[in-house]
Design brief:
13 helices; about 450 residues; 5-stranded antiparallel beta sheet; alpha+beta; 4-stranded antiparallel beta sheet
């Protein structure tokens, strides 16, 4: 399977294909693989399985992954947030492997989870064999599938998607730059991921917004980083004006909703307890002779060195939040840990006032139920506020929402992103209206919607 060019542009508001060239032909994903590793990481965060501060231990096999990587030694650890940032900026192969072992127990189990998740998202032409995109003839994808994954990341995780727009972050003594050179250079581009191996050529998935117009574009098999970027710029310039100017219809999700329990249903891995040690595996015997990951024209690591290689060995060595991104932290990302702490404090306070049986725990998702009716309780400017609205409504509603599923939906209005706070899972309009009436008696405004 040679590195041949393939491309696609999809209207992220309507799902319409605006441009396609060999979009369903098999190609090697290279580091675009890490988009799925990040999808499963965001899902675990969203479901409360891990936190941004959860340690990610590095086994011997994780530590010996081929460059590009962070260089954390076996037995060391970083936080989940540091791992996320290292995947997005440096495309770190060692961090990706460590996350896979944390979430799946082993990289092979995690690869099975990745492929299963791909199927649930409608990615029928993709198979994953490892979490980082190192060469494997059995690992392949299509331009169309990568577009689906890009849209799913944006729609299903509005709380975490802003990480993709981080241009650099400080790790140890290094300032690590994002390989995605379109950030800050091409108007409206907010991510997502680059990738390169000799077999795959130069790959790129880009998300871009212009007012209410939203597109996701994919270029696979570029002959150089510069030519790939030029092709992407041309696709964005040509097809952005052809995208729908109405925004997402009613805030509905375009990406196929993945089953919330797919990881548990597979029963191939048990998520370790927070901080549990990861088994030390033998060093990888995979032949990486054709691998030159760097997401740049010459395959070199694009790191702005500041005193030499990082020697971060433990979570305690990682810099505080205010130092971590070198001033490049988007506003939404900046509030994540603060929002998590505030939510935890509210839950603790509520637990002290009410019996556990009085209020069901709320696990907020960004994926709407596949069908049926929902009730909306708020539309807020941030995901954290939407989650707070859901928690407050659940506490007041008692049994009225006991079987409902809390979720958020991002939508654009006047060029600004807002977040609907909803409870879904009602099979009929009558059931949704009845639950809404119970909420109104508790002074919670709401309305029923299909």
């Amino acid at each position: 399977m040679a590195a041949k060019s393939a491309a696609i542009v999809i209207d992220a508001s309507t799902g319409k294909t605006l441009y396609s060239s060999s979009a369903d032909s098999r190609r090697y994903p290279a580091s675009l693989t890490k988009m799925m590793t990040l999808y499963l990481t965001f899902e675990a965060l969203q479901r409360g399985k891990i936190k941004l501060s959860t340690p990610v231990p590095f086994s011997a096999q994780a530590a010996t992954q081929a460059p590009t990587k962070l260089g954390v030694k076996a037995g060391g650890a970083i936080t989940v947030e540091q791992a996320i940032l290292s995947l997005i900026t440096r495309s770190a192969n060692d961090s990706s492997w460590a996350l896979a072992e944390l979430l799946g127990g082993s990289s092979s189990n995690f690869a099975r989870l990745m492929t299963a998740k791909a199927r649930s998202l409608g990615m029928t032409g993709t198979v994953f064999r490892n979490p980082n995109g190192l060469p494997d003839p059995g690992q392949f994808t299509t331009a169309r599938d990568m577009a689906k994954l890009g849209i799913a990341l944006r729609e299903h995780f509005p709380r975490y998607y802003p990480y993709f727009s981080v241009r650099s972050f400080k790790f140890g003594r290094q300032r690590i730059a994002n390989h995605n050179k379109l950030l800050g250079r091409v108007k409206g581009v907010d991510g997502i991921k680059t990738g390169y191996t000799r077999a795959s050529g130069f790959n790129l998935v880009s998300s871009a917004t212009d007012g209410k117009r939203r597109i996701v574009a994919v270029v696979l098999g570029g002959t150089s980083g510069a030519s790939r970027d030029r092709q992407m710029e041309e696709l964005i310039a040509t097809y952005m004006p052809r995208a729908s100017g109405k925004g997402a219809s009613g805030g509905d999700l375009i990406a196929k909703a993945a089953p919330a329990q797919v990881v548990d249903d597979l029963e191939v891995a048990q998520l370790p307890e927070h901080g549990a040690p990861t088994p030390v595996l033998k060093p990888s015997q995979e032949d990486d002779s054709e691998f030159a990951e760097g997401d740049s024209e010459d395959g070199a690591d694009e790191t702005v060195a500041d005193g030499g290689a990082a020697e971060v060995e433990t979570v305690a060595d990682i810099e505080p939040d205010t130092q971590r991104f070198g001033g490049a932290l988007p506003a939404q990302v900046r509030t994540l840990e603060k929002a998590e702490k505030a939510a935890a404090a509210r839950k603790a306070a509520a637990a002290g006032k009410k019996k556990v049986a009085d209020v069901d725990p709320i696990n907020t998702a960004s994926t709407a139920p596949r069908s049926g009716w929902s009730i909306q309780v708020a539309a807020t400017p941030t995901p954290a506020e939407a989650k707070t609205a859901l928690e407050n409504a659940a506490q007041k509603a008692g049994s009225a929402l006991r079987s409902a599923e809390a979720y958020t939906v991002a939508f654009d209005k006047g060029g600004t992103t807002y977040y609907r706070a909803r409870f879904g899972g009602f099979t009929t309009q009558t059931a949704a209206t009845k639950a809404c009436a119970a909420l109104k008696k508790k002074k919670v405004a709401c309305y029923a919607t299909r």
